[in-house]
Write a structure and sequence with these properties.
- The complex is a heterodimer of chains A (844) and B (367).
- With 844 residues, chain A is α/β, with parallel strands linked by helices.
- In chain A, 35% of the residues lie in helices and 18% in strands.
- In chain A, strands 11-10-21-20-19-12-13 form a seven-stranded mixed sheet, with helices on both faces. In chain A, strands 3-4-2-1-5-6 form a six-stranded mixed sheet.
- In chain A, a hairpin with a 2-residue loop joins β27 and β28.
- The longest helix of chain A is centred in the first third of the chain and has 24 residues, at 159-182.
- The model of chain A is unreliable at 47-64, 179-185, 712-721 and 827-832 (pLDDT under 50).
- Chain B is of the alpha+beta class.
- Chain B has two domains: 4-87 and 103-228, no CATH class; 235-273 and 295-363, no CATH class.
- Chain B has helices spanning 29-42, 118-132, 138-145, 194-200, 212-228, 235-243, 249-258, 264-268, 313-332, 343-347, 354-363; strands at 18-28, 44-50, 56-60, 86-95, 99-103, 111-117, 147-152, 178-183, 186-193, 208-209, 275-282, 285-292.
- In chain B, the strands form two sheets. An eight-stranded mixed sheet of chain B has the order 3-2-6-7-8-9-1-10. Chain B has a four-stranded antiparallel sheet with strand order 5-4-12-11, with no helix packed on it.
- In chain B, α6 (235-243) crosses α11 (354-363) and α7 (249-258) packs across α9 (313-332).
- Chain B is globular.
- Classes of the chains: A alpha/beta (844), B alpha+beta (367).
- Chains A and B meet through β9, α14, α15 and α29 of A and β3, β4 and β11 of B.
Chain lengths: 844, 367
């Protein structure tokens, strides 16, 4: 280091000799790539203020100002540094010196050396306006000599005293980083980017610096020593040849690679044009439950505050949004009201609509722990999933009829007066409503509708009323899609009236989403809600002020409406972040034609796919392992992740792309790092007040929101009691599509554990791809007989709106009348509508 | 790509001669640190480090202050440094349509593995034996041969440890180059091979030959450790029952029904050695990789036709435990395939680890 600081000193001297009045020194420690970057920049005000006029001839302008930097001499000095430093020019022609040093080659203490060096400069040049910035792993500190100077009494602000003050200040500021410098081999943590459990993982690298795998953290409350098959085998995709590594724009009918500047300018120009011609509501934004909180927050901000539209949503509209909405209405938070820890301590667990060992393995492992403590597990699922085999009671329910057993139980409990004591005497309007209609739901109706025996329902209801700790776990398989929200209201009511809504040890846990399904919802990537899930209708002056919204937020179109808008031509420009719209639509020619007719299609992606091939502008995004940010897991745990590997090619993190584009469109916000965005989220998103980017790096376990800014300790449990509100939840007649003679069997569409959603990433990880890449139609032998289909035979699944080709396997553990197929192996027709249950006929 | 700094360890070579009599001496802990500092200057070093959340993990040492010789078992076993989770076997480049250029990776470098736990070193020796059988797989064995192992005896076995039941710890009587025992403010260093002696010779003046009192102290420590184990796994009975096919089908079913086929047990296991081979290609260039694989995955045994001889998790678990308990012991190496490190006990999300399994066998009696 000593040699290095001498070099820096030499270079700075050079600037001083050229009468530079302001200088910034930035040192960035990039541990992911094992290098230290140094940047010296002439910051004198003259440059910035004349820059507009002097476009084109910056060097001349520099002559005009009082300073003259002899680039040649600077070059000479730089060349003596063994090629570490290079001379360049900045945006307005100011001189810039950049240096890159391998961390391994630095011996000694970076921060002590820097402090001594900078203070010696200050001592001899007290009037130089020096700014110093030090950044390590997205943590940064910055200081300005003039600020320190202003704080000193005037008579003492000269030379030595100032130098000493500066030295002290730098040392104090850099104390935080000392740990990093001393323990260089200590690794960054990351969060598994697949499911909503949010396991913490530690990177393993080869001697050459390639990521070879992830290993689980043992002290993390979620991973607790293990990952699932996805986590262990998840890194290969970042090295896949399909990665996009440079921006691309459409030109002369084809796509060409271009610079970031060109891509950003094109996108900004085109967006402005569409905005000008057709107005803000002709533009649609699709966010992603796979992207970080910062990404989704900024996308929301760009949509609402730069473009001025409410047309923003994510693919979760078809899966988790109805659940979150129902929970928001019932409990005031659009999220789980309990934690994983509570699951392992529960006495009764009621699991509805989730193949939990596959989609949220960590929730499954908590259930195993609870069972080990003799908990009762009731699984409501037509399929005999792995967890169903462990169940104390497995109710093979008629697909989609959840609302009926829930209502049956509610009315039984009300009739038997087995509800919370305070409800019986009190004046809860919602409860009165429920009570009035209780008579309409005899257990016998529940039994006929759901195939669950009355006695079982009664037994479960009694148990629910008597235990202290009960946890409801639900996935997006609950209810039929149209009735999903109502079904969740029902479950929330059931939890509420039995006192298990959100008190210590009890509550509702939503499982099965993507790594940031929760966070994307919280950040307000929603057409009708603001960050924190606040409905736009309820947005008051105060909320708006806190969000710092210039334009009043409007209700926009949701995911499905935006896609319809594309079809109908109402949407002229579409901005897509991390969502392959064509994954489910590949065979839907009308839809891809409609996409082709868009005036502008901007796609931010990590892989090239049919959608990026159609895009006007493609922004290459960094993979999660290559960047930093926060994500929120299924129990509301907000966790930080750090870059663990070098970014591929010229990719950039999503937040940065959106930010740069907003800037190119004239938005007036500034973020230096992702942690600036993070800090803004802490200041304006409800429940996220406790986010603190300056938290010491060892506080990587995150916290369960809500956490106040003051409360330094993360809150392990939710507030004592979440009071709930009751919403009507009795089902109307019917539940989705009914079977008949023509289509006698209900086909359930679900997920496979190793084929994660559309398989964008998982199918690019060889072991995951090997594990499961195609899905077969699972049929009960009785139905196979009815359709005259044999095991392994190629079959055609006929439904009311088309045909699916696949092959059949026979499964004894499905109930007769129910079949199963993985969601992704179906063509476009269902996924975008959210329909998960289809009456079918099968032919060989 | 393969040009990594090569620092030779002078005098190490391939000399793995085992000394007839172990040399036992002691050294002050502070002085030992000086030795480490010196060693780190001349050789690559792998040792346990403590992460910021307090967990231990073996890692390549860049800064000697990182080394942590605290008690506790590192998250991953030592195998990842010899049988890597993703190893480059060679690089290739297509030239025209029918020629391919191959580049062999550079040979493994000499290295010091400090603070390896007894169970882990036993695991490494197990892997060495496996990869030398019939065909010597040098990508793995060369690395092992070129490493000097300075193992660390355990005084505080963890809740999950049962190495004493597997004859693999907490102290070693052979298989190491040097072994450390914690004597409060001193380390007792037991040197077993000539190359360990060569390695430490430059620091001769810091070591004191062990006195009878020291040896007695160590003896006392060793006899105390055994009583500290809280977990007992009745391996002998496990071997017998599994070998005789005397395990009830319901037990297999129960474990198989719980196993979610995550592969955690395989990856954390110091002796599991199955791998997958694949090519990662970008454009004309590519690299052939060998990655970890797990027998708990259904894709592991699935055949091209789609037929899977071990379709259920129970079938796969049965094969895995049979291999570890019975095949290894009775047919192959004469030693258990389990080292008792207890990592799978911690890692299995479904309480389906080998220790729980063997304990279950004891409680389910065949009538
Ligand atoms: S996919 Fe989910 S359960 Fe599996 S390792 Fe990742 S976060 Fe953990
Ligand atoms: S036994 Fe446990 S750790 Fe091993 S694959 Fe099965 S669930 Fe995973």
């Amino acid at each position: 280091m000593f040699g290095l600081s001498l070099h820096i000193l030499d270079l700075i001297e050079h600037f001083i000799q050229a009468h530079v009045s302001a200088l910034s020194v930035a040192v960035e420690c990039d541990r992911a790539n094992g290098i230290l970057k140094i940047l010296l920049k002439d910051n004198s005000t003259g440059v910035a203020s004349v820059s507009d006029a002097a476009k084109g001839s910056p060097l001349k302008h520099m002559k005009n100002s009082s300073r003259e930097i002899d680039l040649k001499r600077l070059n000479d000095t730089a060349s003596k540094t063994d090629g570490i430093f290079k001379i360049g020019k900045g945006e307005v022609g100011e001189a810039i010196v950049t240096g890159t040093v391998k961390l391994d080659s630095i011996k000694g203490d970076i921060h002590d050396d820097l402090a001594v060096m900078l203070s010696s400069i200050v001592c001899t040049n007290p009037d130089l306006d020096l700014t110093f910035e030090f950044r390590i792993c997205e943590e940064n500190c910055s200081m300005r000599v003039s600020d320190i100077k202003n704080r000193l009494p005037p008579e003492k602000s000269g030379g030595l005293t100032l130098a000493r003050a500066v030295q002290e200040k730098i040392k104090a500021e850099l104390e935080v980083f000392k740990e990093f410098q001393e323990r260089r081999s200590i690794l960054n943590f990351t969060v598994c980017p697949f499911c909503s459990c949010g396991c913490q993982a530690i990177p393993r690298k080869s001697v050459q610096g390639n990521l070879t795998g992830l290993v689980p953290s043992r002290r993390h409350p979620v991973s607790a020593g293990s990952l699932c098959i996805r986590g262990w085998n998840s890194v290969d995709y970042i090295y896949h040849p399909d990665r996009i590594d440079a921006p691309m724009i459409k030109k002369d009918g084809g796509q060409i690679r271009c610079t970031w500047k060109e891509a950003l300018e094109t996108a900004a120009e085109d967006l402005k044009n569409v905005l000008h011609k057709w107005g803000p509501d002709s533009i649609g934004f699709i966010g992603s439950p796979r992207c970080s909180n910062e990404d989704n927050y900024l996308l929301m901000k760009m949509a609402r505050q730069v473009v001025g539209t409410g047309n923003i949503d994510t693919g979760s509209r078809l899966t988790y949004s109805p659940i979150f909405e129902a929970l928001y209405d019932s409990y005031g938070i659009g999220a789980s009201t309990t934690s994983l820890e509570n699951v392992s301590e529960a006495e009764l667990i009621l699991l509805v609509g989730a193949d939990v060992t596959g989609c949220s393995p960590k929730a499954a492992s908590r259930i195993f722990q609870a069972l080990n403590r003799k908990a009762t597990l009731i699984v409501v699922d037509p399929r005999c999933t792995k967890i169903a085999k462990q169940a104390t009671h497995h109710w093979k329910i008629r697909p989609g009829s959840d609302a009926y057993w829930i209502s049956g139980m509610i009315s039984y409990l009300i009739k038997e007066n087995k509800v919370r004591a305070d409800l019986l005497g009190g004046e809860n309007a919602g409860f009165m409503e429920l009570k009035k209609e209780a008579g309409l739901f005899p257990m016998s109706l529940a039994e006929t509708k759901t195939w669950i025996p009355e006695d079982s329902l009664r037994m479960a209801a009694d148990l629910l009323a008597s235990v202290k700790k009960a946890v409801f776990i639900l996935g997006d398989g609950i209810g039929s899609f149209d009735e999903m929200k109502k079904t969740v209201y029902g479950l929330a009511n059931l939890a509420f009236i039995t006192g298990h809504g959100g008190r210590n040890g009890s509550g509702i846990l939503v499982v099965g989403g993507e790594n940031n399904t929760q966070g994307a919802w919280d950040m307000g990537a929603l057409p009708d809600r603001l960050p924190g899930g606040i409905p736009i209708a309820g947005c008051d002056v105060e909320t708006r002020a806190r969000l710092n919204f210039r334009m009043p937020p409007t209700v926009g179109q949701d995911y499905r409406q935006i896609l319809h808008g594309v079809m109908s031509g109402d949407i002229r420009a579409l901005y897509v972040m991390g969502e392959n719209l064509l994954a489910f639509h590949e065979e839907d020619k009308a839809f891809s034609d409609a996409l082709g007719r868009l005036e502008l299609l901007v796609v931010q992606e990590i892989f090239s796919n049919p959608l990026t091939a159609m895009a006007t502008v493609v922004f290459p995004a960094s993979a999660p392992y290559e960047r930093a940010g926060t994500v929120t897991n299924l129990e509301r745990r907000v966790q930080r992740f750090q870059p663990i590997v070098k970014s591929r090619g010229d990719t950039r993190p999503d937040w940065e792309i959106i930010y740069n584009l907003s800037k190119a469109m004239g938005a007036g916000f500034t973020y230096r790092t992702v942690w600036d965005v993070n800090a803004e989220i802490a200041s304006c998103v409800p429940f996220y007040e406790g986010l603190n980017p300056r938290l010491p790096a060892n506080d990587e376990n995150g916290f369960l929101w809500p956490k106040s800014a003051k409360n330094e300790n993360s809150q392990p449990r939710l507030r004592q009691n979440w009071e709930g509100t009751i919403h009507g939840s009795y089902p109307q007649e019917g539940y989705g599509e009914e079977t008949d003679e023509e289509f006698p069997v209900v086909l359930i569409l679900g997920r496979l554990p190793s084929f994660w959603n559309t398989g964008t990433r998982s199918s690019r990880c060889p072991l995951l791809h090997r594990e499961e890449n195609r899905s077969h139609l699972q049929l009960h032998p009785y139905d196979a007989n009815r359709f005259q289909v044999r095991e392994g035979e190629k079959v055609r699944i006929i439904h009311r709106s088309g045909i699916i080709h696949t092959s059949a396997v026979l499964k004894e553990d499905l109930p007769a009348g129910v079949a199963f197929l993985a969601l992704h192996s179906v063509d476009g027709r269902f996924a975008p509508t959210g329909v998960r249950r289809i009456p079918i006929w099968v032919e060989s | 790509m393969f040009a990594v700094n090569k620092i030779p360890i002078s005098g190490l070579g391939e000399d793995r001669t085992i000394k007839e009599k172990h040399m036992i001496s002691t050294i002050l802990k502070d002085d030992f640190f000086t030795v480490l500092r010196g060693l780190a200057k001349t050789s690559r070093m792998i040792a346990p480090v403590m992460l910021s959340n307090g967990e231990l993990l073996y890692d390549r040492i860049q800064c000697i202050e990182d080394v942590s010789l605290q008690p506790g078992i590192p998250i991953m076993s030592a195998k990842e440094f010899f049988f890597s989770s993703c190893e480059e076997l060679f690089r290739f480049k297509r030239i025209g349509t029918d020629a391919i250029d191959f580049v062999q990776p550079e040979e493994a470098e000499a290295c010091v593995f400090l603070g390896i736990r007894s169970c882990d070193l036993n695991g490494v020796r197990y892997l060495e034996r496996f990869y030398k059988r019939k065909f010597n797989d040098t990508t793995v064995t060369k690395k092992i041969e070129k490493t000097v192992f300075i193992s660390l005896g355990c005084l505080d076995p963890g809740e999950q440890c049962f190495c004493a039941c597997c004859d693999s710890g907490p102290f070693l009587s052979d298989g190491f180059d040097a072994q450390l025992t914690d004597l409060d403010n001193r380390w007792m260093v037991e040197i077993a091979t000539a190359r360990a002696e060569t390695l430490l010779r430059p620091y001769d003046n810091l070591f004191t030959p062990a006195t009878d009192a020291d040896l007695n102290e160590r003896k006392n420590i060793l006899s105390c450790v055994d009583s500290k184990f809280t977990r007992r796994s009745f391996m002998a009975m496990g071997v017998k029952k599994v070998s005789l096919g005397a395990v009830e089908e319901e037990v297999w079913e129960a474990f198989g029904d719980r196993c979610i086929s995550c592969g955690s047990c395989v990856f954390v296991c110091p002796t599991c050695s199955c791998f997958n081979v694949l090519d990662r290609e970008i454009g004309e260039e590519g690299v052939r990789l060998r990655t970890w694989d797990a027998c708990s995955y259904s894709g592991f045994t699935r055949e091209v036709s789609g037929h899977n001889p071990r379709p259920r998790a129970a079938d796969r678990l049965k094969r895995r435990f049979f291999h570890k308990l019975s095949y290894q012991t009775t047919k192959d190496s004469g030693r258990l395939g389990c080292m008792g490190c207890g990592r799978c006990v911690v890692s299995c999300p479904s309480l389906a680890d080998i220790s729980t399994f063997v304990t279950t066998l004891r409680s389910v009696r065949t009538v």
